[in-house]
Design goal:
Elements (H helix, E strand, L loop, with lengths): L4 H13 L9 E3 L3 E4 L13 E4 L9 H11 L11 H13 L2 H12 L7 H14 L4 H8 L3 H8 L5 H20 L1
Antiparallel strand pairs: 1-2, 2-3
Length: about 180
């Protein structure tokens, strides 16, 4: 529903690659995914530049490569993200708050006692890594630019029981195939 191609690309990058809004200012296409050079600092250390591998959302094959191509060619420029790192998140929030579909999602979530924010796009990437992609948590944490501890405490604390059983059934079927050989 986002009509402005700049914002469509930016929101796509946030969701497909699990970025923080500020990282839009520090992203470029890499050989194997999206290169992110942003260094988030906390009390103890800072993140290192990383490449986020391609992991398309279910039902959208090729979306990551399309976004990388848009970014690489420069045909669609990045939207205005402000003059400082802190303003990037504000700019993304303002752009999304103007979108009727995003407002509808937020309202539906509120009615259910839940909350949706731009970070929800980052959480979706973490969920894809965990449940659909079978990506080990340590690898997902590295791709997202945070510690394994943060990943487990923040991004993988809430599994739906159905997804847990599906993951175990999938693992069990792999073991069955291996035992037949």
């Amino acid at each position: 529903s986002i009509e402005d191609q700049r914002w469509l690309m930016a929101v796509g990058l946030l969701g497909v690659f699990g970025l923080r809004a500020v990282e839009l200012n520090y992203s470029s296409p890499g050989k194997q995914g999206l290169l992110v050079t942003y260094e988030k600092r906390n009390n103890m250390n800072k993140t290192k530049p990383r490449t986020v591998p391609v992991l398309d959302p279910e039902g959208h094959p090729g979306l990551a490569q399309k976004l990388l191509l848009m970014l690489q060619t420069g045909l669609v420029p990045m939207p205005p993200l402000g003059n400082s790192d802190g303003q990037a998140a504000i700019s993304v929030n303002q752009a999304l708050s103007r979108d009727p579909v995003w407002r509808k999602f937020k309202e539906e979530a509120r009615k259910q006692g839940k909350r949706i924010s731009t970070y929800s796009l980052r959480h979706c990437f973490a969920d894809r890594c965990a449940m659909r992609g079978g990506i080990p948590p340590k690898a997902a944490a590295a791709a997202m630019g945070h510690s394994l501890n943060t990943h487990l405490q923040v991004y993988q604390k809430n599994y739906h029981q159905k997804e847990v059983f599906e993951a175990f059934e999938k693992a069990d079927s792999v073991v069955e195939v291996l035992n037949k050989d």
